[in-house]
Amino acid sequence: MANCNLVHVVFDRSAQNPEEDAAIFTMHVRGTLTGLPDSLVSMTPGSRDAWSARFDNFLDTWKTLASPKVKCVALKWYDLGASADDDMGPPVQVHVKNKAGVASGQVLPPQLAMSATLKHPSTGGVGRHGARWGRIYIPGITVDALDANGRFTSAACQVMGDAVRYIFQPAGTPTGCRSTIWSRTAWSHFDPNVVQVDDVPDVIRSRRFSTTNYRYRVNV
Question: Domain map of the chain by residue range?
Fold first, then answer.
């Protein structure tokens, strides 16, 4: 489906541990047309370029909260299939990035992330039947973003929330694109009207260290 793309946002973590794979969060971006905000139009290289430039602004904010040991290295674009069972195939476009964090604090364990929840007007509550919502898990955050109780500070939440809000606004004119929520059950888009960033770190088990550098064992 060329009118909506899945985007893999790829972060290199090898500076934390050379054995680690990339951390990825995914987003959906749909084609738009000025004056017809709900219409789906084909994504183009130019609309992807416009979104990539908008995403750079997000990265410029992210890096102030993130460690130099984590670096965004690519945006990989895939055309969605006609249904959830279709193979998307190889990327239709790749934007190479080279943006690392600049925060000086100790990086948090790799399985901890700052999450941004995207809410559609249908959302009666995340997890409720029929609610339309999405979430991205932002890696590389340092202890500088934590308060004395281990929660993200209100300042960090607000800065990140504003940055995520920016990438959910339309990019490019007159034919452009915008970030959206894509439902696998409805196989359709639902544009969010609220971005929410909570102060509780999320745990993404798939991002934890895959190997141990040290293990202590003692017989009982």
Answer: 4-207
